[in-house]
């Protein structure tokens, strides 16, 4: 292990030192006083409005220069006016974001100290019991049968394939399926800009493409390459601000947006914050209030107790709620993982949407949304169809159709798939079993989900196969991030931060509680996991070029760090993004990535 640590240290030193040289070779930044025209369709005619405002308010801004090859994207996106707008947005909500993140920590501490568990809040009972509905959605959002998930717009070819598909929507992802290096962030935002403005070669007109369901980063992520008043800005505000500034008016004119997915919210107060962001942005960009629409992903156990309240806070802007199985399951470890009665069994064998706690969660999402006139959508099928001439396609199709048919029959209005080849079969399911644009008429009066239903842990043990699988997924996800990629393919599935989250969470929890393998009764220990990590590395090394083995070794060492932490790291992406900085221009591993 000592030799491995030395190799890892050398790799990280190279990773950091290589960026210094690259920064010196880049072109100059745009002059701060440059006046520019903006293609937003807003009433702004000169690039001075927001610049004057930030000067008046004494807001300071610093933006890093572009990585090599992305000068055009940088100059298109980060005009002085756009930078000033994002700076104003971040300065306006800086305190709110800090308070929200501190409130998360405080609530976790209170639950740990008291041993209490979440419940439906008494103070908001009136919201749950009174009759009200969210505002209607635009025409293009009435049918949300099939979205393509995990589409990082930084992967130009995948993004183009999605734009040319027959899906209703594209989860245009800056979160779970995306790695936010400076290179990938600029490329992804620029590709969205080009697609919206009908400038992306090979893409259809945005009015004829699937709607872009833009997914900014979650609140736990920061953007390292922009400082406002000396602080790194919140990742979601950087993403949202640039997406709105450059694209909102064009999308509105073409009846195509702006529409969003919101990730990893933990309750109504966080939905209220997003609503304030929407109202402020619409006001500053001269957009009619309620134009922005957003679907909240219920990916946290705490959020499941405040579904009505979240819809209520976003009622002018709501596009309903979505189920995300693996992030949601991982949140149990995040919030209660130190408690012996919340040890989650092997996900590969014992965790599925048919288990009581997940079925109850989805039933409640559907019932709540339809009562409030909102869409309820299911999660993403990660299964991949085999290539032409390969066996197994029938089995994959049957598994996907079986799972998604259960969601349709439960009343879901739609769901996501990753593989473009699954769009047509999913449409055929809807045509046969739920041909209307949505299923809001399915009210589910028989559903009576209580606190105990949402908190009921599934029975089951831990298998050696499941432990090995979690280790392999965790290591390969970190390896993908070192290359600037947010997802990868493994054993016929797409794996992203959600599956990496549940994988590393389970390994951490099984070591912490000394879980036993049901195969032979052996206790899961640090030594056992270290041995399995080395075995996994040997297997992985056989499938990658020899020059990349040091990077895989580094990923394995980082995985061990994460699963042995005394205090559970809240998000694997935060850990990687803050403790192991993967900024484009500071690492040669991912400088030219176009996944």
Give the % helix.
Answer: 40-55%
Instruction: Count helical runs.
Output: 21
**Secondary-structure-derived class:** alpha/beta
Arithmetic mean of pLDDT: 90
Low-confidence stretches: 8-47, 581-595
Rg, alpha carbons: 23 Å
How far apart are the termini? 32 Å
Task: Characterize the overall form.
Answer: globular
Please state how the strands of the largest beta sheet are arranged side by side.
Answer: 2-3-4-7-8-9-10-11
How many β-strands, per DSSP? 13
Q: Give the strand content.
A: 5-15%
**Largest sheet, strands/sense/barrel:** 8 strands, parallel, barrel
Record keyword descriptors for this entry.
595 residues; 48% helix; 21 helices; 8-stranded parallel beta barrel; alpha/beta; 3-stranded antiparallel β-sheet
What's the structural blueprint in terms of helices and strands?
Layout: H1 2-24, H2 49-56, E1 61-63, H3 71-77, H4 80-114, H5 125-129, E2 146-151, H6 156-163, E3 169-173, H7 182-196, E4 211-215, E5 222-228, E6 231-234, H8 235-253, E7 259-262, H9 268-284, E8 293-298, H10 307-313, E9 318-323, H11 325-336, H12 347-350, H13 356-371, E10 376-381, H14 393-410, E11 414-417, H15 423-433, H16 451-455, H17 464-482, E12 488-490, E13 493-495, H18 497-513, H19 526-541, H20 549-563, H21 572-579
Parallel strand pairs: 2-3, 2-11, 3-4, 4-7, 7-8, 8-9, 9-10, 10-11
Antiparallel strand pairs: 1-5, 5-6, 12-13
Helix pairs in contact: 1-20, 2-4, 3-7, 4-8, 4-9, 7-8, 9-10, 11-18, 14-15, 17-18, 17-19, 17-20, 19-20
């Amino acid at each position: 292990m000592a030799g491995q640590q030395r190799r890892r240290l050398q790799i990280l030193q190279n990773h950091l030192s290589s960026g210094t040289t690259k920064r010196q070779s880049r072109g100059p930044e745009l002059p701060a006083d440059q006046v520019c025209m903006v293609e937003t369709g807003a009433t702004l005619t000169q690039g001075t409005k927001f610049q004057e405002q930030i000067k008046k308010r004494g807001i300071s801004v610093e933006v890093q220069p572009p990585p090599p090859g992305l000068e055009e994207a940088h100059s298109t996106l980060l005009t002085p006016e756009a930078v000033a707008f994002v700076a104003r947005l971040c300065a306006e909500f800086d305190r709110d974001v800090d308070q929200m993140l501190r409130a998360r920590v405080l609530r976790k501490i209170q639950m740990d100290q008291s041993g209490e568990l979440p419940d439906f809040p008494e103070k908001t009972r009136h919201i749950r019991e009174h009759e009200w509905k969210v505002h209607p959605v635009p025409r293009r959002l009435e049918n949300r049968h099939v979205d393509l998930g995990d589409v990082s717009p930084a992967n130009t070819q995948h993004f183009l394939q999605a734009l040319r598909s027959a899906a209703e929507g594209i989860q245009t992802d800056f979160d779970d399926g995306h790695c936010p290096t400076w290179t990938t962030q600029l490329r992804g935002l620029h590709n969205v800009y080009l697609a919206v403005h009908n400038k992306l070669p090979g893409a259809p007109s945005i009015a004829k493409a699937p709607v872009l369901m833009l997914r900014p980063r979650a609140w736990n992520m920061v953007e390292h390459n922009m400082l406002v008043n000396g602080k790194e800005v919140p990742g979601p505000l950087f993403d949202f601000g640039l997406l709105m500034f450059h694209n909102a008016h064009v999308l509105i004119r073409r009846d195509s947006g702006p529409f969003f997915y919101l990730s990893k919210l933990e309750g109504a107060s966080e939905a209220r914050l997003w609503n304030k962001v929407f109202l402020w942005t619409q006001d500053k960009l001269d957009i009619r209030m309620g134009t922005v629409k957003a679907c909240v992903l219920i990916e946290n156990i705490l959020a499941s107790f405040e579904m009505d309240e979240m819809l209520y806070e976003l009622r002018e802007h709501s596009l309903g709620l979505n189920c995300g199985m693996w992030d949601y399951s991982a949140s149990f470890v995040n919030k209660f993982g130190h408690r012996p009665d919340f040890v989650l069994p092997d996900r590969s064998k014992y965790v599925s949407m048919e288990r009581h706690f997940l079925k109850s969660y989805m039933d409640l999402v559907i019932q709540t949304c339809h009562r409030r006139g909102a869409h309820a959508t299911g999660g993403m099928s990660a299964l991949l169809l085999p290539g032409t001439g390969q066996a197994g396609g029938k089995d994959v199709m049957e598994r996907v159709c079986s799972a998604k048919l259960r969601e349709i029959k439960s009343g879901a209005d739609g769901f996501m798939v990753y593989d473009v080849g699954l769009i047509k079969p999913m449409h055929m399911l809807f045509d046969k079993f739920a041909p209307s644009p949505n299923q809001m008429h399915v009210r589910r009066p028989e559903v009576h989900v209580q606190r105990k239903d949402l908190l009921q842990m599934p029975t089951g043990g831990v298998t050696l196969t499941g432990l090995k699988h979690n280790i392999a997924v965790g290591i390969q996800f970190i390896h993908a991030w070192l290359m600037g990629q947010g997802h990868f393919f493994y054993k016929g599935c797409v794996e992203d931060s959600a599956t990496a989250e549940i994988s590393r969470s389970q390994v951490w929890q099984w070591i912490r509680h000394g879980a036993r393998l049901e195969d032979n009764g052996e206790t899961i220990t640090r030594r056992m996991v270290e041995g399995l990590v080395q075995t996994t590395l040997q297997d992985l090394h056989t499938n990658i070029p020899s020059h990349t083995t040091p990077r895989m070794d580094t990923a394995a060492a980082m995985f061990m760090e994460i699963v042995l932490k005394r205090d559970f790291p809240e998000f694997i992406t935060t850990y990687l993004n803050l403790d192991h900085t993967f900024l484009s221009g500071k690492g040669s591993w991912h400088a030219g990535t176009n996944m």
